[in-house]
Structures are given as C-alpha cells and as structure tokens.
Amino acid sequence: MAVAELTGTPSLYTTRTTHHRYQYYSSQLSYVSTRLSNYRRISLRPHYPRTNQNARTRCSVKEAEAPVALQTEDPKKKPECYGVFCLTYDLKAEDEIKSWKKLVNVAVSGAAGMISNHLLFKLASGEVFGPDQPIALKLLGSERSLQALEGVAMELEDSLYPLLREVSIGIDPYEVFQDAEWALLIGAKPRGPGMERADLLDINGQIFAEQGKALNAVASRNVKVVVVGNPCNTNALICMKNAPDIPAKNFHALTRLDENRAKCQLALKAGVFYDKVSNVTIWGNHSTTQVPDFLNARINGLPVKEVIKDIKWLEQEFTEKVQKRGGVLIQKWGRSSAASTAVSIVDAIKSLITPTPEGDWFSSGVYTNGNPYGVAENIVFSMPCRSNGDGDYELVKDVNFDDFLHSRIKKSEAEVLAEKRCVAHLTGEGIAVCDLPEDTMLPGEM
Ligand SMILES: NC(=O)C1=CN([C@@H]2O[C@H](COP(=O)(O)OP(=O)(O)OC[C@H]3O[C@@H](n4cnc5c(N)ncnc54)[C@H](OP(=O)(O)O)[C@@H]3O)[C@@H](O)[C@H]2O)C=CC1
Ligand SMILES: O=C([O-])CC(=O)C(=O)O
After folding, report:
1. Disulfide check for 106: which of 182, 184, 274, 348 has CB 3.0–4.6 Å away?
2. How many whole angstroms from 109 Cα to the centroid of ligand 1?
3. β-pair type (251-253, 104-109)
C-alpha cells in the first residue's frame, strides 16, 4: 500500500522514494502526521520499539507485508501528513520492549545552525542518552531557517536512526518546547562587525527571555536547560529568571568546551593522553576572562603542578590558550567551533545523567545560590560540579584557592556582574545600566 494512500493527503515527502525503504523493513506500518502553518510534527511512534541491530536486519528483508493502519489512529482526523517520522507502526519485538525506556523529549534551538548540524545526529544515534532510549527531537528555528530546518529533518529521516521516534520543527517556542525534558538552547545572533557588546546582550537577551517564558509555560516542570548561545552565562541567567516555575538549578551555561580545551592543553604539555587529566574546573564566564584552574586539576591523579613544573607556562600560556582557543580556531576555520562544541554538549548532558567518577568533577555554568566559594550570589558562573546521574548536580566542596586563582575568579565575576547589570530590564531587576569592562570578549573574539 502506498504511503499517499494511507495518509490520504498531499505531503512534502510522500512522493519521495524513501518510503519504499520502510516498506522493506517494517511489516506493520500506519502513516500519520501533522502539518501546521509554522509547526510541523513528524513523528514516528513505536508500539514495539526495536534495537539498532534489529533495524538493520529488517532493512535487508526483501519481501515484507504491506503497512497496516492501526485501529487507534484515524488518518482523517489528522492534519496534513508528511515524512517518514509521521509513521505509527507496530513491530512485534515483545522481548525487546521491556528494556526500552520511555521517550525523552529534547528541544533544540538554532537547530539549523552549525553546532546543531553535529549535535542532532549524535542525539538521534543514541550516543547521548543511550542505546535503549527512544528520543523525540523538537527543533526550533525562525522564519529565516524554516526551509533549512526541513532539510535537517530530511537528513534525520535519511539516517534511519532506530531510536529517533519524533521530529518536530517550528518557529514558536511555545509549541516547540511543549513537554521538553531537555532544552538545548543554541540559537543566538552572532556579534557582527561594529556591534557593541551591550547591543548583543540585549538582542540575544530578548531571545532568551522569550524562550524562558515559553519553557516556563509549556516544558516539563523538571526540564534541564543547557544554554550554548553566547554570551551563554548571561543568556542562561535571563532564561532562568523568566522561568520562575522551573528550578533555578536546572539551568546551565555551557563551559564544557572550555574544560575539554584545558584538558587537551595540559595533556599536551605533560605528554600524556588526555584521559589522564581530571578535576579540571573552568571558573566564571564563558569569555576570555574564564579561569582554567590548574591548581586543583590532576594528571595521572597527581596535582598538575607536580607534573608540570613550569609555573610561568601554567599562569600565562596555558591560561591564555584556553581563554582564546575559540578565537584562534575562528582565524583558522573562518567560523566558530561547531563539532567540538557539539561534542562538549554531549559531554555536559552525559555528566548529568551518569554518576561522576569517584573523586572527579566537571564544569558547568550554574546559578550561584549558596555557593561555598564566596562567588557573588544570583549570577550564572562556571564552577565544579558532581552528579549522581539523576540529572541534578552538587557543587564540589573540597577545592583549593591561592592568590592567582582567587584574583582571576574575581575578574571573571566582575565581568559577569557587569553583564548582569546590562540586562536588568530582562531579568526583572530594574533598569539596565551597561558599563562593561573594555576587554570583555567572547572566546571567539580577539
Ligand atoms: N558556549 C560555548 O561553548 C559555545 C557557544 N557558541 C555559540 O553558539 C551559538 C550558535 O553557534 P553556531 O551554531 O555555530 O551558529 P550558527 O550561526 O551556525 O547558528 C546560529 C543560529 O542562531 C540562530 N539565530 C537566532 N537569532 C538570530 C539572529 N538574530 N540572527 C542570526 N541568527 C540567529 C539562527 O537560527 P534561526 O534563524 O533558526 O533562529 C542560526 O541558525 C553562537 O551564539 C555561538 O557564539 C559557539 C561555540 C561554543
Ligand atoms: O565566540 C564564539 O562564538 C565561539 C565560542 O564561544 C567558543 O569557541 O568558545
């Protein structure tokens, strides 16, 4: 039976040959979908989930039964349908069902951007949430990117990910963030030539204020939010302040890329593989004032200073290399880190959903609310965290400070506080007064 016959409505994807594929490897299929003006839901709902291996095996079956519509779905009641993710299908893999988890809803903004182009495929593959975790991707774009988003959805279709059960695209965060359990907020306006940082803070701040409100209204009450779009600390604060019904602890600004960069540089200098480097904290802002902490970091379980005796290198070269790594990469590549950022988002999520190895920690920009380090309260600041794998985290108590570390942290803290004053109108804290330190820069600007 042809897909178009099942859906009964014209669709963007119904004429594409990809449908034949599903006729090969799914023995009992029914096709349903929705297409709203700016919100397109492409869903593939499992009645009987299958494993990767199973999917591949089924792909090679040449003679399969025609798709059969499920009694519970009434295609006539569905809005316009398209795409392979519209499928509702029924696979009898009884034994496997028990080991599959409940669908997880993951929203991604800036979904047609460069970082997302790497990240979405990692999410869909099971690399992030695991091989037994079906996933729904909710992709947020804009009028600008709606066509591109359809292209992203098509590529996801063509990747045949067994775990990917739903893909929806849209430009209204109130629709896209519905029931989101993870919100990966990547989309943000890049700073253009001649643009004041205060203007960037305001433009992007408005995006994150709106998205915070939307999360507050429609997302899961325990949604975990990872803000990537720059300036990510301040954007995360704005988002959090506009989502008062979601725990402040659930908001993160991504500084994991900086941690990974720091680990790489320490490994290089020490002549060890980077898995030997642990306990690396990035303190502060995701900017050139960030503080890669070599005082508490370890190499092969030893304090870094016992392995790398060149203190001048640690204080100057290492610190600056990490702070400006993004900018050097932009000079080489002509665009900012995308693949390694996606990898670091994966790392950041995994750090929250798997127990932190004994004695180690990870960095994340989190809300300072009763922090044990004397960092100013009521800001988003990168600090060392541990998780027991339930999506939550605790700050690490047992860390050392010396004058160098302390003074650098204070500089980054001053910058975050200045950024915060620039966006007071967006956090509900009065009138904005923007007086930023002159050297305030994103890692990519130098
Ligand atoms: N925290 C970190 O470690 C890192 C953060 N970043 C930051 O991540 C963000 C995304 O980077 P990347 O994916 O490479 O960027 P891209 O330029 O490829 O994508 C950014 C997306 O942002 C969206 N966007 C939202 N508002 C605007 C606007 N006003 N003007 C233009 N685009 C807008 C666009 O999507 P749409 O049109 O759909 O809205 C666009 O697709 C940037 O802010 C970057 O600085 C980058 C690297 C590391
Ligand atoms: O400044 C940018 O857009 C890139 C960035 O954050 C980084 O590379 O760390």
Report:
1. 182
2. 9
3. unpaired
DSSP 435: -
Residue nearest to ligand 2 atom 2, measured at CA: 444
Q: Are 386 and 356 in contact (CB under 8 A)?
A: yes
ipTM here: 0.97
Which residues have a Cβ under 8 Å from the Cβ of 411 and sit 6 or more positions away?
289
User: Cis omega before residue 303 (within 30°)?
Assistant: no
Cα(190) to centroid of ligand 1, in Å? 6
Verify whether ligand 1 is closer than 6 Å to residue 169 (CB atom).
Answer: no
Question: Mutate which of 38, 115, 117 to test ligand 1's pocket (most atoms within 8 Å of Cβ)?
Answer: 115
Report the C-alpha gap between 86 and 142 in whole angstroms: 22
Alpha-carbon distances, residue 446 vs 148, 264, 347 (angstroms): 30, 21, 26
Measured CA to CA, the distance from residue 307 to residue 171 in angstroms comes to: 51
Q: Which ligand is nearest to the CA of 109?
A: 1
Residues marked active site are found at: 286
CA proximity to 232, closest of 193, 284, 169: 284
Best residue among 169, 228, 261 to mutate for probing ligand 1, ranked by most atoms within 8 Å of CB: 228
* Cα 93 from Cα 50, distance rounded (Å): 7
Instruction: CATH number for 256-427: choose from 3.90.110.10, 3.20.20.220, 3.40.50.300, 1.20.1250.20.
Output: 3.90.110.10
Q: Which ligand has an atom closest to residue 329 CA? A: 2
Out of 189, 228, 230, 441, mutate this one to test ligand 2's pocket (max ligand atoms within 8 Å of CB): namely 230
How do the pLDDT tens digits run along the chain, 446 residues long?
222 222 223 222 222 222 222 222 222 222 223 333 456 555 554 333 333 333 322 222 223 333 333 344 444 443 443 466 666 655 555 455 557 899 999 999 999 999 999 999 999 999 999 999 999 999 999 999 999 999 999 999 999 999 999 999 999 999 999 999 999 999 999 877 767 777 889 999 999 999 999 999 999 999 999 999 999 999 999 999 999 999 999 999 999 999 999 999 999 999 999 999 999 999 999 999 999 999 999 999 999 999 999 999 999 999 999 999 998 998 898 889 999 999 999 999 999 999 999 999 999 999 999 999 999 999 999 999 999 999 999 999 999 999 999 999 999 999 999 999 999 999 999 999 988 876 667 776 66
Does residue 218 contact residue 179 with C-beta atoms inside 8 Å?
Answer: yes
